[in-house]
Amino acid sequence: MASNTQETMYKRKLRAKNAGAKRKIALENKGTTPVFPIHTAEADANAPAQVSPKVGPAKA
């Protein structure tokens, strides 16, 4: 039978190992993209003409 100290140390180690596991899994599944819009009209107006996100590749 394990002593109280051994049980406590095991529980602490297990708790530290699992800390944040649910958050990490949720972020991995759902992603970390922010909820606010990245490409706004102001950002497009300030961007150089060559890098405009509205211009797609040329179709042949």
Can you walk me through this structure?
It contains 3 helices and no strands. It is mostly helical and 60 residues long. It has a domain at 1-28. The chain starts with a helix and ends in a 14-residue tail after the last helix. The relative contact order is 0.07.
Short note summarizing the structure:
The chain is mainly α and 60 residues long.
Q: In angstroms, what separates the terminal alpha carbons? A: 76 Å
- SSE run: HHH
Count every beta strand, where a strand is a DSSP E run of 2 or more residues. Answer: 0
Count of helix runs: 3
| Structural category | mainly alpha
- The unreliable regions are none
> Beta fraction of the residues?
under 5%
Radius of gyration, in angstroms, nearest whole number: 25 Å
Helix content: 40-55%
- Overall mean pLDDT stands at 82
Q: Characterize the main sheet.
A: none
Overall 3D form: rod-shaped
